Input
Amino acid sequence: MIFKKSGPLRGQVVIPGDKSISHRSVMFGSIAKGTTEITNFLTGADCLSTIGCFQRMGVDIQADGSHVIVRGNGLRGLKKPDGILDCGNSGTTTRLISGILSAQDFSVTLTGDESIQKRPMKRIMEPLSQMGAQIRSVRGNGCAPLEITGSRLHGIRYISPVASAQVKSAILLAGLYADGETRVTEPALSRNHTELMLKSFGADVRTEGTTAVISPARELYGQSIAVPGDISSAAFFMAAGLLVPGSEILLKQVGVNPTRDGMLQVCRSMGGDVTLYNETSDGEPVADILVRASRLHGITIGGDIIPTLIDELPVIAAMACFAEGETIIRDAAELKVKESNRIEVMVRNLSAMGADVEETEDGMIIRGGKPLHGAVIQSHMDHRIAMTFAITACMAEGETTIEGAECVNISYPGFYQDLRRLSF
Ligand code: S3P
Output
């Protein structure tokens, strides 16, 4: 797909549903008793993988666009699927479902696409095994395919080496089925959607600092869930609105949970004009976000803020190319094990456009202010890389070609249409 430098971007975008919350709404609805009604469900390929997996395990899920009805089977009502479960490109599906499958009364194999088969699964295999799960990497390389045989589980106290909501959530979900309390302590707090949503489904779950604690559940109960817009999707338009001269973009109904809002903080610290309106909170805080073109300056980003903006770091790195001075991103080694190695892929693609960017052990150093030019961008079929470069192209001289641009389907099927609409 070919992109050109853009004029001012003006207008509003209704941001599609949050990916993390959409996954969880179907998963928890599937193991709850009764009906769960979901509105603004994200119809991206990742969340459809989650629906597919639970349908294969006998759950009645009716999806009509972003309106989804899940008639749950209860905590112990899933059925053995008649083949391998396909998690597609979705790390969230693979890791969270593993926590649930560890406690069922059947064996199952799950796998996904080429990218998912390279992503680290030992991070869930270890704690789940400590709980008594039988979980094996079929090729013995710590990656999917995974073979899981349901077992009786014990509560554990787990100190996680990584701040990962997927790891935390896999353990908490297994903890629903354990014979005692389960505690997960993280080095920094990761997104807490699992804790918030499980609580609304009736689970006994609480947070003590960076520790999540769950007690075994007898049953969960179906809920109505209005999924907020995904701040990780809004981030691309926040960047575009701040960078492209003369722009003003209103992003409607975006989730601004404090465990996800690092992008707001970074934009403001870089000098960005960002205002929140209509803030509400029904469990998950939501707001409209207005961004106006601004002069940005470089900053240092590291420490506990990293998990709150981990998926936004590619677009933040792109923003830094247009900011005055140096931006340092550190403590972000997790970027190497996302849908692609996002440090390597960002540095390579930004360099191809003429940016002054350097790879480090756990992040990047970007010296902003060099004008960028169009180039051929390899998305590596990573949705966030493709969207980052569609935005970067708005600011670059000449033509930018994005290879594999269609992968935005994973998290934001209408992304290019929404971007195009803003430029008219
Ligand atoms: C997610 C957690 C994060 C994030 C991913 C979604 C989730 O991954 O990058 O896009 O829904 O729990 P990690 O848990 O690996 O940090």
The pocket of shikimate-3-phosphate is lined by residues 20, 91-92, 164-166, 169, 190-191, 310-311, 334 (CB under 6 Å). The CA atoms of residues 245 and 273 lie 13 Å apart. Residues 231-243 form the longest helix (13 residues). The first strand starts at residue 2 and ends at 4.
